[in-house]
Amino acid sequence: MSETALCSDYAAITEIRATDPTAIARAWQQRSTRPTLRDNGRLMIVAADHPARGALAVGSRPTAMNSRTDLLDRLRAALADPGVDGVLATADILDDLVLLGALEDKVVFSSFNRGGLAGSSFELDDRMTGATAASTAAARMNGGKMLCRIDLDDPGTVATLAACAQAVDGLAAHGMIAMLEPFMSTRVDGKVRNDLSPDAVIKSVHISQGLGATSAYTWMKLPVVDEMDRVMESTTMPTLLLGGDPTDPDEAFASWEKALALPSVRGLIVGRTLLYPSDDDVSSAVATAVSLVR
């Protein structure tokens, strides 16, 4: 446990939230921070912002992420690996982790838009209901991330685009990274599906990287798809590869290893694949991913 930890267990977190909520802001100010890139300029980030969108399933387990304490256990195991640079999550999870002292000398990205609840009729009107540029800067984080799903048949898309553009500007004004996660999406039998064909990913990159008044602080978060070399020719933005829903671990690791060799790719940002591996051995899955990045 870090010397700066205010809580030694989860009951203590609830106690602080009930009796001394200002301790959370103090914990953020006391935390030791670090620059986004160092050493070999690569990043290994774990992601945990799905629950706030009501997306609690992992593979065939529909309630895998129901338990917050179990998720925190898994995140702490991942962050304990010195090869893991940091975490992307919503404020509720990040506040828990900072109280536990798990974010010392770690890169931290906040998650901005969680308004597009999974399975809702308004899923693609994904408004900014999470962190803000101001809150991200106040907590001395490294940047913020936005999901930017684009459905040419859904009017809600334009609200998402406008919100993402404003967030890019807000983060840039604070000199912080604006990480965009774009997809061309459509509804199939009422459910939103992302088009993972190379040309669709390329189109999503071009649309999203043009958002905002400046691209100086814009990064991409992209899926690993076929013809990744051609996909990466669509951008000069620093890019982190996302893991997506768990598939065959060996297949996933092999695809990441190949894509990591491409220009502009700076590392991985992976959530469920590492936090909820089929054998529940988080440390082993994380160690394998770290070895690819390093």
TrEMBL record:
Superkingdom of origin: Bacteria
Matching Pfam families: Cgl0159
Q: Which Gene3D superfamilies match?
A: Aldolase class I
| Cgl0159-like domain location | 41-290
Listed name of the protein = Aldolase
> What is the scientific name of the source organism?
Mycolicibacterium hippocampi
Instruction: Identify the taxonomic lineage of the organism of origin.
Output: Bacteria, Bacillati, Actinomycetota, Actinomycetes, Mycobacteriales
